Fold these 3 entries.
Entry 1:
Amino acid sequence: MCGIFGCLSNNDNIALLMLKGLKRLEYRGYDSCGMAFLDNHVINVKKDVGEIDRVNDKVNFLELKGHLGIAHTRWSTTGKVTKQNSHPHQSCDGNISIVHNGIIENYEEIKQVLTVIGHKFVSNTDSEVIAHYFEEKLKNKSINEACIDFIKEIKGTFAILLLKQDEDKIYALKRDSPLAVGICKDKNILASDIHAFSNLTNKAIFFDNDEFGIITKDSYELFNKDGKAIEKLIKSFEWKEEETGKKKYKHFMMKEIEEEPKVVDRLLRSLDYEQKNDFGKLIELIKKSKKIIFAACGTSYHASLLGAYYLHKIGVEVQTLIASEFKHYANVDKDTLVIAISQSGETMDVIDALNYAKEKNAKIVSLVNVPYSTIQRMSELSLNILAGQEISVASTKAFVNQTVLLLRIAQEFGYGVNLKNLSAKLKNLFQQKEKIRKIAKKISQSNDAYIIGRGLTYPVAREIALKIKEISYIHAEGMMGGELKHGTLALIDDGTPVISLISNSDEDIISNTREVEARGADITIITNNPTFKEQENVIYVNTGNDGKFGLLAATAGQLLAYHIADVLGRPIDKPKNLSKSISVR
Ligand code: M6R
């Protein structure tokens, strides 16, 4: 959720680097942002409400001087979107400044105690207590002792960067929210994820839970919760970064959809070469396990539903669960293999599900996009989906590569699918953009839309509905065609948009489509059935009878959702209330 960034450098002017670094984390939250710099023993703070560029236009972060700073981009949890609630937060005396990602669960209790002894709070956030907590502790304790107490006394999750007016250091603490140090030649960078600094270094160390650290421009010391110094291995990471910036595109979402052919090929190649061993190990683990459960959220969950469909077709029993409900529905033991699917690798609901599964001694593997993310580091084995950086909050190319990896797994068990021509088929689909935009214009005029599918296309119906809701703010329901008559049909009136996903000549979904049409629905069809091809309301996907249709229909849906949102002038890459990395429960 929020993004935090800190830098300590030899160079006295780091404002631009800080601004660029923070921008790279903006997909984690964009309600407000701010920076605190240490300059000649004075902490200077600038912050305000809005996206980083807008706030920068107003406050000009580049005026901040100094070689040491912390920064924050917020996704609000506690406290409304106001300037006062923006980070960094200060202690009463202004000597301490902090940025925080996470939730301090017992902040009200702490705030009350601190208020009684005279602390004045200016925000309604949980995070502000951190600055006052340290101010109070440091009256009679060392900073290390204060950190040890903090980890003991605080309930909740945190990645914190803390500046003290009299020290050329950044103090950092972490529990559950991600935190890494990027090691560069002439500076150290602290950030919520490696993307923040992957353009500057490929070396990083990662904080684990209940650790704290003292970072200078050329050193770092890390400690466990008892204050014992710990050794950290420097990890070298490889992070595929597509051409930076939006280039010719109006939005990252479209750029990322058009990257799909390239990233599909990259993943397929890697499964044959670089990741061949790990892929083989994963197949063996699946074969050996008595029970297989996927755990995922949102779009990644829809990919897992497709995975379950493919595997069921060839007799491999798998269950898939939305991670936030995992502990209520999963029956897990030592013979269970839990396969986590996550783009960010930081989704708290998935992490919780994995912790629950670990307690029951299940085996954990994962399919993730962000290397060295928490979920990857929690897994015995993890495959990279190699979609590269996904900036738009709406997941597109990551969904495609998650599904491709699941198809490859199913292939190993005998599922017949030709993946070699997938990227060409994707490119082919992009040629229908004009037709898709025309259909999108029509749908954009409605308040509700229904997307129906069956079997292979049921997960796709849900995924298209999620995409439409997320970026266009139109209410959309993705459902099994067969369920319509059990209730939802009552909502279909003259002109209600229904998108029907017709795989080949699936008679059942064709009848469901007729049923809604008879009630006046305005039908759009996404199909690989050539008999519908020439109709105006049809997005034709030129592919055969293998499981690729599901994937290609999902991409057609991504394009449709994109154009609906674009016609409506929505902020497509940064939809309201959302964030790319959901690290709260
Ligand atoms: O990073 P993850 O794949 O674990 O994220 C899960 C969901 O939050 C994510 O897929 C979300 O639904 C997307 N923004 C939808 O486009």
Note: The mean pLDDT is 95.
Entry 2:
Amino acid sequence: MTGFDSFAMVDWSSGNDTGPRPRKDAIWACVVRKGEAEEPMYLRNRGIAELWLRNLIETEIAASRRLFLGFDFPFGYPKGFARALTGSDDPLKLWDWFERRTEDSPKANNRFDLAGEINRHFGGKGPFWFNGLQRDIDGLPKNKSDYQNPFPERRAVELMPEAKGSFSCWQMGGAGAVGGQVMMGLPVLARLRHAFAGQISVWPFEALDTPVAFVEIWPSLTLGAAPDGRIKDAWQVEQVAQSLARMQVEELAQHLNVNAAEEGWILGVSQSKPNIAPPPLRNDCFALPAGVNWTPVDDALALLRERLTVVATPERVALSQAAGRILTEDVLANRSNPPQPNTAVDGYGFAGAAQEGAQVMPLYPGRAAAGMPFDGTVPDGHAVRVLTGAALPDGVDTVILEEDVTVQDNHIAFHGPLKQGANTRRAGEDVAEGNLVLPAGRRLTPADLALLSATGIAEIHVRKTLRVAVLSTGDELVEPGETAGPGQIFDANRPMLLSLIDRMGFQPVDLGRVPDDRAALRDRLNNASKQADVILTSGGASAGDEDHVSALLREAGAMQEWRIALKPGRPLALGLWNGTPVFGLPGNPVAAMVCTLIFARPALGLMAGEGWQEPQAFDLPAAFEKRKKAGRREYLRARVRDGRAEVFASEGSGRISGLSWAEGLVEIEDGARHIKPGDMVRFIPYGSFGL
Ligand code: AMP
Ligand code: MG
């Protein structure tokens, strides 16, 4: 569970109250809720910060928002320290140990004395050093000349190249030191943990399965200098909270995936691990609730939607390769569109507005054209020639259309009035720099490519196209073009399914045909699971003697027979083969196509990363009559003529001609119905399925 609704980042401080006016080196925090950043909060001392944190946690829990809370100080000490003080390696026990011993008020705290006391316990020369007070403290060295540390100088994470520049938590003071922050920070976190017992988990010591997560993050490791005029700490917490909020769930999950049980870790610093991934789907992902006989279509869809996750891997591609691909992250405009104010027409530009009545203006030499800006400033009261798309010259904010102008003797004349800004386009009036252009999960259309290009995007993060293998099963099948003996039929499903997969935006992988032979089918599935992300089979999905798809999947221990209350469609066999999801479709071509459109398409979309796609339907008057009993949903092959939905004369599930005749499906709800001509019915055009 790594999806969060709110992200907050806190920049801690070990010093005393920093006064009423916002300033640097104080405690700062910033919250981003549902993508919206709040103004950074100035928290003048730790007491106020603790209250603010309590409030934040309470608010988010009450609103059922999952909160990710980052702090910029170590959550643990180098190896061995926790055990030496508390008798346990559990860093959270150390948090409580400090909580019991620290004294903190806005004007003073006991961090140097406590450091000295701990040092005396270890012989009085370390591990802590640096005394920020005027008086001597027994056991606390002022500098490192007579210093001895019984523990490692640094945590493992601080030795990683990405954490270069981090400070040791033994150093209690001096510019940039964190020793005091840890000592005065952990007690606050410990109190919050107890106040919200069971609601907060601490990374990476605990599984993040509660409403609130505490995470160690050091903004200074990744961020440079703040922009002019901004307080560094305020700017940093805002940047970190925003970039966390923008991060894809799986990227965040990847960052959170570290093992550091005792010392803790810094989020964003990578832990070297071989490049392997667990199976994307759980073995029980197709399990149905016990005792259900015929599952209603909506329940079956809801189950697929809940259980399946994205399996397509991300990659970065050039825009020219991106058509039809699915974005893994929100794309923000690199540049405004239009980038600068420009003219929407061919005409003459000047500083507007123009008054009522005849206007005569001297023409200024030169012109502005698209891509060839006018160099200089147009004096007030003068007009200059401008062509569509040209950047407005300095001194011009209004344009008169060339058709409305008389040009003579180096002057133009036209009828006013004309509003200031007429016939011009404002910079960023379409999209402003930094604005969201397209959201994660978007499948890129030709128009999207225009939008991305215009806003300066040349490369994007997308997913590899989901590979969907198609396999036909049945002893009776022969390839079109071969001779068909008695009892044999041509394989009609495979060309249809391969083409459906292609049209729906996935990558078809042709696995051919296999006879009703378990060993052959097993081989083919083994092969398929290496070449594809998902496998579609047709035929052999029921529970009969020759239904080897269901038998094999059952044997593999990961098969479910989905008896769905729908016509046309017999049981679907859903399962995993070597971790690859298999959709065992019915053999009848009509049922195979309907099940693909209704069940496989949204499921494939989810696995491909485009989210769950509902087909758009239209209510239309029926051109037919039909009676239907309650208990299952029906899909009729249909098309629209003269604004009315016609259905194919026969509902037989072997009637392939009807599939081809149809241009969509009429969906009739689960309950009983008597449809008469002119009654409204729900029509889903094939186009709504992406075909
Ligand atoms: P099954 O699900 O294997 O019992 O098949 C149900 C019906 O669909 C049978 O009449 C099969 O012959 C037919 N069928 C199965 N696969 C195909 C296919 N690829 N093309 C055309 N018909 C098929
Ligand atoms: Mg069969």
Note: The two ends are 35 Å apart (CA to CA).
Entry 3:
Amino acid sequence: MLKGKVAIITGGTRGIGLETVRAFKENNAEVIIFGSREETVNRAIMELEDEGYKVSGYYPNLNNYAEIESTIKNIIKKFNHIDILVNNAGISANKKIEETKSEDFAKIMNLNVNAIFNVSKSVIPYMKKNKGGVILNTSSMVSIYGQPSGVGYPASKFAVNGITKSLARELAPFNIRVNAVAPGVTKTDMVAALPEEQIAPLIQSIPLGRIGEPRDIANAFLFLASDMASYITGDILSVDGAARS
Ligand code: NAD
């Protein structure tokens, strides 16, 4: 589905991002992962190599525009074009507002929102030059209903939806599609570590009766990245088993 395409996946070292790397590699894309540290990027590269997949990796500071710009230039030198960008790196929060410092709020916005601006802005000129591309963002089901604590997280994901819908309209004339996937509770390290007594009521609240697997989300990214989604842009695709509140 992605033969000949070059894709960057931020937060590609574990969880949803890593599974998306696998789905893209199975479909013959060239994949470059961005992670936060050299050590985790190298570990993911080795893990993927053991599975038979060859990927490249970088660890630019996603809040440093100049650093991202020079990384993107290096990638273009090596691969000539960038066709797909998946802005997936993100952190969450769950503290009540009284326990949340303004620095905590800023930290979430810096990674979940500002980093999407920085990486997208660096890649878009090359997509325009190449007469097309796909930008995909990781939103969340909390971007629809909010959540009862950890206000920075839903705030950031509402912003992700705003970026998605607005860039979709701005970039449509350049044949660049922009969409987001809004996962529900998904079994990444964080969720897998929850005790059974927390998992059971969580599952009960999901109409499809199970927690999402990283592959459920990766498949949505794969579809939206492929030409099968050629007339879809500006959409926020919920992948949450109908757990919408
Ligand atoms: P995860 O913690 O397993 O992975 C997060 C990824 O982001 C890692 O690859 C990590 O290296 C990267 N990252 C973290 N801080 C970074 C930084 N400062 N700079 C660069 N990269 C950084 O989490 P996940 O569950 O796979 O989450 C991936 C995305 O999915 C996030 O945007 C998250 O908000 C979203 N999401 C997750 C769930 C869920 O239940 N797991 C639900 C909805 C949305």
Note: The chain has a mean pLDDT of 96.
